[in-house]
Amino acid sequence: MLKGLAEAVLTQAEAPVEIDLRVADALNAAFAGAATEEGDLLLRRIDARNPKGQATLAAALARLSETDDIHLGSCITPGAVVIPVALALSHGSGADGSERFGQAIAAGYAAGLRLGTAIGGARSMEAGVWPTFLAAPLMAATTAAVLRGCDAEGLANTMALALAGRSGRLGKPVGNATARWLAFGRAVERGIEAAADAAAGFAADPGLVSEAWLAAQSAPHLVDAGAPAGRNGFGIADTGYKPFATARQGAAAVAAFHLLLDEESIDPARIGHVLVEVPTASHSLVSRPLVPSDRLSTLSSAAYQLAAAALAPDLLFDVARRAAPEARVLAFAERVEAKAAVDLDADWPRSWSGRVSVDIGGRTLRRQVTRLATDSGSDGAEAAVRMKFDRMAGYRPEGLRLEAGGCSDAAGRAALWQAFVSLCETRRKELDGHAHH
Predict the structure, then answer these.
(1) Domain MmgE/PrpD N-terminal spans what residues (predicted)?
(2) Of the candidates 263, 288, 319, which has an alpha carbon nearest to the alpha carbon of residue 30?
(3) 293-326 residue pLDDT tens
(4) Fewer Cβ close by (within 10 Å): the C or N end of the chain?
(5) Which of 327, 343, 369 is the last residue of a domain?
């Protein structure tokens, strides 16, 4: 199965025309993640003085930002893994300016999406699996191996090394000090090490991944054993962007609420009750109790996200959320109710829809959004990424803009990557200085 997967992703691995946008989006997410409380912990813990550590740190920061790209069907967020690994390992190696850089990114995306689909994609979360956590070593190893010019046989061995002993079960996050992001970074590190181990001559079992193995990672009834080597695999172009910092499960509801506010010129003060409806599988996440001091809680809660959209739109681009929420935002959130809507399950997980009903002045206004303007195949991706780059700076150096940074050539990518590496070193020294006082 791994030989077929390796052959499939190498066949698909053509340099994507939108690679500059993926690089900008992932690095912007990493800069934003560095401004969080969790980012402080990671900056202290992960040694980023070498390319492997830099990729590990960037991946963890980008993923925790909840602004990285996502493929809905497989529930894989590939950019947070693939882009940092490609940038870190190609920087200064000569691979960045070649076609191989694009091939490595496309292959890394394809490997993750195929594995995520094979274990049941978004449905595997029912079994307690975090698909991207399971696939992270595979994506990192594939990206690193293709950068080296690995053939299908060598790549299959690298994949086996990366996946040996893996599990996608990590449990729920536990507050801002959660080890979730550190574990994610370590999974990426494991993939980089697997590629290096394979290059050093170590071999693994090429028959590791089987239908039984896939079932053990998820649940037997969810497995699609044909996905890894199938002819109709997914790739980078099938992966959508997030328009702001949010759990993707609730993003469509926020978009629907935005439409109502804009189209009806609604004064938020006149809104009585708001009903948010999402697919059944999304309900448990968007309806979790809001804990204002828990950053992930505010990113998941549909109530909080709608309150931010109504009263403090800049909050949607504030990844760190270090400041205590305003009382008026929390008061609005109490008027929002989230329910599961069975009729929205029909097209899930290909689309994660959201419907909002607003009671105002004795009337009920309703809007539904099935696809975001940033979903794959839509035309709003570039505008959204540029908006995030402008509004979601985090710790990105002042004056560094998407246009000025330029991600479409090796020099532009190197400038952005070096800015990130320098920022992490500066920030780590600041944190060490604070710890000594």
Answers:
(1) 50-213
(2) 319
(3) 999 999 999 999 999 999 999 999 999 999 999 9
(4) C
(5) 369
